[in-house]
Model the fold of this input.
Amino acid sequence: MNLPEAFADSKVTDFFVLAFTGLPNFDLQRGNFVTEADRLRRRFVDANDPDNFFRSTQQCDVPGDGLAQYITGVWTAIRENRDLDLPTQKEMLANYRCDEIKDQILAAATRELGPSLNAVNRGEITENLGELFSNTLLAALAGYDGDAARYDAQIGERKREELRSMLEDDMSAVFHQQTFNIRREAQSTFAKYLNEIPDDVEDCAQTIKDAKARAREYMENKTAESRLSGVEWSIDVLMREFDSSLEERAVTVRDDILHKQFAAVRMDVQKSVQKAIFPITEKAEENMWKEIRSLLADKASEYSSLVTEKLRGFACSDDELLSFQQQLITAAAKEVEGYVRTVPPLLKTKMRQRFDELFRYDEKRRPRVWGRKHTLAQIDTAFSEARAAALLMADLFSSVCLDEQTITILSEEKCAELMELLKLDMDEAYRGALREHEMAIERAQIPVPWWVWPVIAILGFNEFWAILTSPFLLLIVIVGLAIVIYFVLSLHDHPLLGNAWRFFTAISSSASRTPAVAGSTTRDDHPQEETHSHPRHHDRESSLRARRPTPSENNESQCVSFCIAHSILPMCTAEDRVEAPSIQLCLS
Done:
């Protein structure tokens, strides 16, 4: 055997303990064999035996569980005629055994973490996960230390750190999966908080801020609870993503509630504008658009404080407030435009109603009776004012004049056509008023014969005396007269029955009327020829006067025609009045 120079003079006994023993034959001396085998066993296991192989003078740095592997490695080197380096063999043994122990401990720890890992992978949140990590790690390291302490300390410590690192890596994967589950739960909780916010919340910004704080607190607490103590597992990226998702969701909900509340404010503004412009458009005076523009300007000055007051709980920026204010101004203008656009389909009816209000009816909304107390100048003035007010509505509602830009709603051709149609109806109403005035004058010129009163007194003397001398009959007559007077006055004031009453009284009076006296007057000149005449209107009026009979020629027919027309027309609808002139002419 070639020995190194440092061990050239060494003997084999310097490195190995050589002992030889023999055992009796098992078949021939079985008793002695058992005795000697027991003594040989004690030399290995009994430290107090004087012939113990592991005496204190020998180094016991090879654990028993690794002895077989150690001896195998030594004799393998000897058999292969390699350099026999016993310290290296011990290191190799320590590496081998520590790896075995580490693998066994790691497999046991993985089995212990298996249920929690499966639950986390299913998306569940494992409670007290950090405590489970700590207990598993401490148990694994304790088990490793107990089995690896008999081997080389440096190698054992290195393998111990490897075991810790591997366990922490496995736990880190479970932890990060747990944090994803916690983030999803926190986002769901945050969404639930936001869904519970009512649409009419006053302090929306603070409410959303509190909801974000609760969601982040839940995320931080659950993450800290799942973290292994003493280990810094970074979740900064995850938290940034979490905060970003909360902010995005918060902005969406805030904008949604903000627009709902602003829509309510805008609706209130539109209603207030509609309510404010209604009386202006109903009056339809010449300065209507000036009043509307003044109204919108006054309201525009209020929108800044209105928006700030109604939306103060949303922490709106100055640009947002300015934008909302401008939207309210636009909405108010659109409301006016939309309202005016609804007028043209009803403009003809409105113009006729305006004319009727000023010409056909008096201040108490009762049908106007053009009696003999009225002068022709009064009729002309009333007609001119009523027709001018009615025709003015066509000019006012034909376009929207809110700013420098004018929006045309009704074309000039349509306006002109509408005016011509209404002028015909209004001229017919004027001629009817003239006829009514003439008839009133004619009725006033028919005197009651003087002999009627003596005849009534003579013929009715007995009846009068019977009534006066009988209290019962006198009471009946007084009550009857009171009822008749009250009934007549009620019919006269009624807008529809009053016309019917005047109609029948006119017919009854015409039945007993005598021919007109020579002093009755007629109207030959049309008042509108001076101020409101139209060529077509003038021709039509001239032809009508040419074929109209005079009161002296057909007084009764004219009276009946007039009474029918002016008693029935006010009871007709707006659509029926269009055909009324032809009906009147036919009756005449």
Summary: The beta strands are 399-401, 406-408.
